[in-house]
Every structure is written in structure tokens, then in C-alpha cells.
Amino acid sequence: MNGNIYDIRRKGIIGFLILSVIVVGVFLFYSDNLVKDLSDQERERMQIWADATREIINLGSTDNGESPGNFDFLLSIIERNRTIPVLITDDSGEIIMQRNFSLPDAVDSLALFGLTPANKRFLAEKLETLRTTTNVIDIDMGDRGKQHLYYEDSKVLKSLSFYPYVQILVLLAFVLIVYYAVSSTKRAEQNKVWVGLSKETAHQLGTPISSLMAWMELLPESGVSREIVTEMDKDVKRLSTIASRFSKIGSKPSMETADINDVVAHSSEYMSSRISSRINLTFSPNPQPLFVSISVPLTEWVMENLIKNAVDAMEGSGDISISIHEEKKRAVIDITDTGKGIAKKHQKAIFNPGFTTKSRGWGLGLTLTKRIVEEYHEGLIYVKKSEIGSGTTFTIELPASNPHAYS
Predict the structure, then answer these.
(1) Contact indicator for 156, 83 with CB cutoff of 8 Å
(2) Is 321 within 8 Å of 264 (Cβ atoms)?
(3) What does 260-295 look like in DSSP terms, one character per residue?
(4) What is the distance between the alpha carbons of residues 329 and 45, in angstroms, rounded to a whole number?
(5) Strand, helix or coil at 82?
(6) Closest alpha carbon to 246 in 197, 213, 290
(7) Contact of 306 with 333, CB cutoff 8 Å
(8) Buried b (16+ CB within 10 A) or exposed e, 210-223
(9) CA distances from 358 to 47, 266, 315, 387 (A)
(10) In the chain, what is the greatest distance between 2 CA atoms, to the nearest angstrom?
(11) Helix 68-80 and helix 4-61, axial crossing angle in degrees, nearest 10
């Protein structure tokens, strides 16, 4: 399996996000038009309210024989507004009428007579706010100048303005919950597969390794050279170590406090004798002992995996440098190679199961490495930097221990 499946998934996620943005955009556009229509309707109602107010004032100030029915009709228009807060001021800016505001001190009158100081301050602040909006209608009173009607959006309009965003937040929360549930289920299934595969591998290796160990004891008696037997014995023990590592996957490994300098040095020495002489592997330990709580066999496995990856990336020749330093009570291990580098789009995907850029790779090494570092050792592993054609630096961070606590 190669990285194509992850490229497809990444493109699928981008496509889904684009589709989601389009859907949300259409929804917001429709909601915005709905809010605009309702706002226009409220302004029309306020215009009618302003016209009725002007006519009532005119009827009250002139004796032109208008029938009382007209006055009652105009007054009913005023009374029917029970939802939109309204302020009316004269040309000098003095408030002469209010309606539908939730005043600090309750009053029955629409006018300002008898208002408490708290109410007057409240209305004055409302007026200053409303002057910064477009919710104002000028009322031409003829010879008496002009009055100005300021109004707030109704509670329905305010609620409708926020409703689309509330829906989006609810939808987003729902999607995140579903995504988390699906991801958790998928991760749990993957863990079961990893554990089952690892333990089955260890079990399958156990029988032939035991048989090989028995044969190793018989080889000297059959006249096989002691040197050959010694080298074969090293390889059999190596297979036993590999089987032991697989058996530890899925169960909590035994942890011990060790100097990370010694563990990494041992892994580096082991690998340096098994890689091409054209590859220069150097190791720079921390100047002082740096103790960490680790599973030594699994940590050596991590280092061997990363060194093998670096060797493969350089295709036969180059430099590998490993350095250790302490930073913020953490042991930091940098593994740098001069290989072909990793494309930026793949720098996170390389830890996914099955992802590989190698024609014959399985894409399991870095996945196991990440699991060992982050799940068993509560550390971090990531690509610190990488440039195509220049090389890559992997970084491991492990919590440092207090050596005096174990002395």
C-alpha cells in the first residue's frame, strides 16, 4: 500500500470542507435576505407609526373638523406597536416620547413626565446608541420643525439575526461529536488489529526460534566452525529480541529509569556496523547523564526504525547525525539525514498505518514508532524539518526523570 489512499482521503476532506462552506454560504445568504426583508417590513411599520404620530399631533393642534374616527384609527396604529422599542426626539435632540423599552423603573405613561432619573439616564444612553445606526425616520411637522423617530430592532428580528449562527454552531458541534465518535471507533479497531497482529507475529516466531536455538547446540558437534556458530547465535538472539518486541505491543511494557545517552548510543553502535560504509553515522550525546523512564527494548526499536528509514532515504550514501539535549525537562533526540526529504503534504501522513513512499514498503515502521513513543512513553515524535533533496530531521521528546529519585 502506498500514500495514494491518504492523498485521496485528504482531497476528499478538502472537497467536503468546500462543499460545507458552500452550503453554509447559501444558508447564510438565505437567512440574511430573510432578516433584510423583516428589517424592511419593520421600517415600513415605523414609517406608518411616524405618519400616524404626525397626524395625531396635527389633529390635536388644529380645529379643522376632522372626525373623531380618524383620531381613534391613528391612535390604534400607535397602540398596536407592542414589539419595536421607539424613541421620539424634537429638533434639539430632547426625548419627548418612548415606547416598548424595558425601563429600570416601570412607568405607565408613554411620555417623559414623571420619569425617574434612572429611566432618563437609560433612555439617554439608548438614544446615543441609536444615533449610530440607520434606524431613524424624520417626521416633518411643517411650521413646527421636525421630530425624529429612533427605533430598535424587535426581539424577533434580533433573534433571527443570531439564529443562523446558532444553527451553524450546533451543526458544527454535531459534526465534531460524530467525527470524534467515528475516529475513536476506528482507532480502537486499529489498535485491536495492531495488538492481534503483533502478538500473532511473536507467537509464530517463537516456535522456529526455539527450534533454531536447539539446533545451535548441535552444530558444534556436527563439525561446524565455532566462529560460524557464534555469528549464527547472534542472529538467532536477534530474532528472539524482535519477537520479544512484538509481544510487548498491546500490553503495558515494563519501564525502567535509564540514561537515554546509553540507550541511543547502543542502538547507534548496533546499526553503524550493519549499514553501508558509505553512510557516516555520528552520535552527539547530552553532556550530562539524562535519565528517562523507558522500556529499553522498545526505545532501541524506535531508534533502529528511524535509522533504517534515514538509510533508505539516502539510497546508499550520505550522513546521519543523532544528537541529544535537554529542553524544558524533556529529553530531546534529533535524528537528521541528508536524504531525499519528505514533501510537506506527507509530513503528518507518514505516521499513518500503511502510508509509505517506498515501492516495497508496508508503511508500518513509523506507525509502530509513533505508538511506542506517544502511547507507551507519553512523549512526542514529529518531523522537525524536511526539504526535498536536502534531508529530514525527526525529533523525539521524552519526559526527563530526576536521577536522584532513583539513587
Answers:
(1) yes
(2) no
(3) HHHHHHHHHHHHHTTS-TTEEEEEE--SS--EEEE-
(4) 68
(5) coil
(6) 197
(7) no
(8) eeeeeebeeeeeee
(9) 74, 28, 11, 18
(10) 138
(11) 150
3-state SS class at 331: strand
- Closest CA relative to residue 281, chosen from 333, 331, 326, 317: 317
Integer angstrom CA distances of residue 59 from 51, 102, 301: 12, 30, 96
Provide the pLDDT for residue 336.
95
Instruction: Name 406's Cβ contacts closer than 8 Å, sequence gap at least 6.
Output: 257, 291
**Beta-ladder partners of 400:** 292
For 327, the enclosing helix (H) or strand (E) is strand 318-327
Q: What's at 365, amino acid-wise? A: G
Residues 238/315/373/187 CA torsion (nearest 10 deg): -100
Three cell numbers written together for 74? 391613528
389 — alpha (psi -120 to 50), left (phi > 0) or beta?
left
Euclidean distance between the first and final Cα of the chain, in Å? 48
Residue with cell 395625531: 56
Question: CA-CA distance, 320 to 310, in Å (whole number)?
Answer: 7
How confident is the chain (407 residues) per 10-residue block, as mean pLDDT? 60 79 81 83 81 72 55 67 82 81 69 69 87 84 80 79 79 81 75 70 76 81 81 81 72 86 93 87 94 92 91 88 94 94 84 65 73 90 92 94 52
The Cα–Cα gap between 37 and 109 comes to: 32
Confidence at residue 28, expressed as pLDDT on a 0 to 100 scale: 79
Residue type at position 277: S
Instruction: Using DSSP, state whether 117 is helix, strand or coil.
Output: helix
Residue 407 pLDDT? 40
336 to each of 310, 319, 349, 383, how far by Cα in Å? Answer: 8, 8, 19, 10
Write down the pTM of the prediction.
0.53
User: Comparing C-alpha atoms, which of 332, 351, 333 is closest to residue 342?
Assistant: 351
